[in-house]
Amino acid sequence: MSYDPLSERPTNRRRLVFCLASATSFLLYLHRYTWNLIRPELEAEYGFTNTQLEALGTAFYATYALGSIPSGIVIDLFGPHLFLFAIILVWSIIVPLQAVTGNVFALGSIRMLFGAAQTGTYPALGNVTRIWFPRARRTMVQGWVASFFGRGGGACSSVIMGTLLMGYLGLSWRMALVAMAIPGAIFAVLFLIVFRNSPEEDPHANQAERELIQGDERTGTETRGVIPVRKALKNFSLRVMVFQQFLNAGSDVVYTLVMGSFFLSRGVADMKELGWLVSLPLIGGALGGIMGGFLNDRLIRRVGSRWGRSLVGFFGKTLAAASLYIAITQPTAAQVAYGLFLVKFFTDWSQPTVWGTCTDIGGRFSATVFSAINMAGNTGALIMPLVFGPLLDYFKTEQTVAGELVVVTNFTPMFVLVGLMYVGAGILWLLVDCTRRIEDEINTDAVEAVS
User: Fold this and answer.
1) Does residue 319 contact residue 346 with C-beta atoms inside 8 Å?
2) In angstroms, rounded to a whole number, what is the distance separating the alpha carbons of residues 246 and 23?
3) Which of 143, 164, 267, 295 gets the highest tally of CB atoms within 10 A of its CB?
4) Within 13 Å and on the Cβ side, how many CA atoms surround 202?
């Protein structure tokens, strides 16, 4: 007797998976964005220069970038279950280790370990959203996971660490890091117990739910596989996405590394206020990601995947550039923060679009494709702080304030460069055609080889 999908109601394991994926994304950024408050503490306590601090910041991205492709291959071969459990646990343990030394080389090594532990998270979550959610709703889900909860974790990082733990509770920055690491370790164990790689492997998901997720996209249990990155990069749109993501993540790194120091330079001395102002741009990014996912799915239904994804990326980046140049001219720190809220709102429109493009182009090789794009982004995040640091030091001057000689850094040239990178990323989005799938190209090559 054949299976009738109407004979039973679908279970809701995909909703539990959504919660687990969202919490993973939240913790990823919650822990990563602690650097915004660690950076000024290291500057004040050890007297590090901007160049040294940006080198420490970028040390994270060295291993984060190098580990992206190997982790994507592992995920495509074995699935994300045990992989995500292990890295969540390890990175949570590493978070407070950033406070144990003032030696620049030892601290750089810890930052590199932290990057190695977090790499592969989004390739794994890209795999999760592709396997566990129907295609028609996938980009919206990816917007919630990657942008809302990811950026939300980054926004909460400075509020929880700065405003709450250091401000209201009076903890030192070292103890605040310990307090923030504990929930991550607990969640890793929960993830191990509850999550499964696919609906087919989850005994609590019934056949009706599996049919609902699969739709007409695929049938049966999907086989795992791996594709050489060099072969994947023969796809033109993937090559364009590599350059786009370099500019995207290379510009975005300023929100990870320098926001705390930037608002301190604008005269914000109260830790309670500082935590809130640092979080505002990231709140904008969280909301922008949701809007981008909504717009993406709506445009795809109207104009198809090709232009639905490209237009969201193009307009998001160009509107972000325009908003940035307005934001940095505002007279008060609060007005600048609200301006940067709009900047991140527009630039993070493209976050779920990146995920959707990866799954469209990659198909069953999506984790490998995502890891290639992720590596390009993190290469940008690795290189650009090495540009930003000396740039900030070059525009650093000594001024007399209230009878005291103080060092003042001009951040405007850095933001001008970031705006130009937004414009470049927007133009590249117009060249991306996500309908040219790698798997189809492989099958075409195989047919031509046989004939």
Assistant:
1) yes
2) 26
3) 143
4) 25
Average pLDDT over residues 79-99: 96
Whether the CB-CB separation of 380 and 253 falls below 8 Å is answered with yes
More confident call, 129 vs 293: 129
- Is 34 strand, coil or helix? coil
Confidence label for 42 from pLDDT (cuts 50, 70 and 90): very high
Q: pTM here?
A: 0.72
Q: In whole angstroms, give the CA distance from residue 219 to residue 210.
A: 10
Say what the alpha-carbon torsion angle 316, 318, 322, 328 is, to the nearest 10 degrees.
70
Q: Is 224 exposed, middle or buried (0-12, 13-18, 19+ CB in 10 A)?
A: middle
Please answer whether residues 138 and 115 qualify as being in contact, where contact means their C-beta atoms are separated by less than 8 angstroms.
no
On whether the CB atoms of residues 224 and 364 are closer than 8 A, the answer is: yes
Q: Give the right CATH number for 12-195+225-443 from 3.50.50.60, 1.10.10.10, 1.20.1250.20, 2.30.42.10.
A: 1.20.1250.20
Signed CA dihedral, 212, 216, 221, 227: sign only: negative
- Written as one letter, the residue type at 164 is L
Q: Which residue has the tokens 């370790």?
A: 185
Query: How many CA atoms lie within 13 Å of 434's alpha carbon, on the beta-carbon side?
Result: 28
Contact between residue 326 and residue 179 where contact means Cβ atoms under 8 Å apart: no
Work out the percent of the chain whose per-residue pLDDT is above 90: 47
Q: 218 CB contacts (<8 Å, ≥6 apart)? A: none
Break the chain down into helix, strand, coil percent, rounded to 5.
80, 5, 20
Q: Between these two residues, 113 and 447, which has the higher pLDDT value?
A: 113
